[in-house]
Amino acid sequence: MAGMILMTEATLMTEASPAPAKPHLPDAQTVTQVTHWTDRLFSFRVTRPASLRFRSGEFVMIGLMGDNGKPLLRAYSIASPAWDEELEFYSIKVPDGPLTSRLQHIKVGDEIILRPKPVGTLVHDALLPGSRLWFLATGTGFAPFASLLREPETWEKYGQVIMMHTCREVAELEYGRKLVESLKDDPLIGELVGDKLHYYPTTTREASPLMGRITDNLTSGKVFADLGLSPMNPEEDRAMVCGSLAFNHDVKAVLEKFGLHEGANSEPLEFVVEKAFVGDGI
Ligand SMILES: Cc1cc2nc3c(=O)[nH]c(=O)nc-3n(C[C@H](O)[C@H](O)[C@H](O)COP(=O)(O)OP(=O)(O)OC[C@H]3O[C@@H](n4cnc5c(N)ncnc54)[C@H](O)[C@@H]3O)c2cc1C
Ligand SMILES: NC(=O)c1ccc[n+]([C@@H]2O[C@H](COP(=O)([O-])OP(=O)(O)OC[C@H]3O[C@@H](n4cnc5c(N)ncnc54)[C@H](OP(=O)(O)O)[C@@H]3O)[C@@H](O)[C@H]2O)c1
After folding, report:
1. Which residue has the CA at smallest separation from atom 30 of ligand 2?
2. Closest atom of ligand 2 relative to the 243 alpha carbon
3. Residue-range domains of the chain with CATH
4. Is the pTM higher than 0.90?
5. What is the pLDDT of residues 160-184, one digit of tens each?
């Protein structure tokens, strides 16, 4: 009798078994949320590979399968903190960009490719201890700071954190503004943040309460006067920079004038820099 049941099950299994092979991306993760902020900017969340460990501020390679059957990958800062069970990204939409012309259309349930090899210089380990930490970002360069602002170590290590974010237009600041506003209600870090955060969002091509390039607001001393802070000095201040190549170049010169030196993972010093993108025109 038992043999008969087994035979029947075996027969059924054999009849049902040749299911069509589901196409499966290598290193696939599933999209869980998509938010469009402007016609040029969106953010999305994906599942996190169980094995992925990273330091808040690092970046990974993500992408989609190209038409040629090969993965089409680009560098992306992880915008979520290291403790989050999902991964968040904040992205540009380049109209004819090989990746983002397609990536901007992803929906919940879609799969993306995510290579689980995080790297980067915008990490706490690459800075010497200090008392004030400056996050300096233009455009999507805000992404690594979306991670670091939600990282408890940021608030445990520093007495004051100054987030300067500059975009051309007001709407481009919205993702960062919402994230900064949410910090005080965050169950994990709300209390740690306390009154340590100074948020300084500016625009350069549309009127808003605070205006001007980060470089100009540092050089003129406007940001120090507006926030009631003393000027930067290498004993107290540490900085992390993320923007276009031109911005990174110019802000580096400004920080050096204040006496700060550029460090790296291998040699922690007073500031670190990462590119938000390569190239200078869409
Ligand atoms: C270390 C690193 C981290 C990065 N992190 C992010 C991130 O978190 N979010 C993100 O959107 N991009 C990020 N980028 C840029 C990203 O790798 C891609 O360039 C971007 O997704 C566009 O891809 P694409 O294939 O559509 O166009 P690409 O061929 O890669 O780029 C086409 C052109 O678009 C412009 N461009 C590309 N990216 C941006 C951008 N972010 N902002 C403004 N102009 C841009 C440049 O002029 C570039 O020459 C990062 C790049 C580096 C090097
Ligand atoms: N943002 C848009 O609405 C828009 C629309 C279409 C196409 N694009 C193209 O997209 C590309 C990226 O645009 P983006 O706005 O994301 O980035 P971006 O050109 O790097 O500008 C982002 C912010 O950084 C400032 N900035 C640029 N260079 C700087 C420097 N050397 N020092 C200090 N501050 C600096 C800009 O000020 P300034 O305004 O003073 O330059 C702006 O406020 C550009 O090639 C642009 O032509 C942008």
Report:
1. 247
2. 20
3. 28-119 (2.40.30.10), 124-275 (3.40.50.80)
4. yes
5. 999 999 999 999 999 999 999 999 9
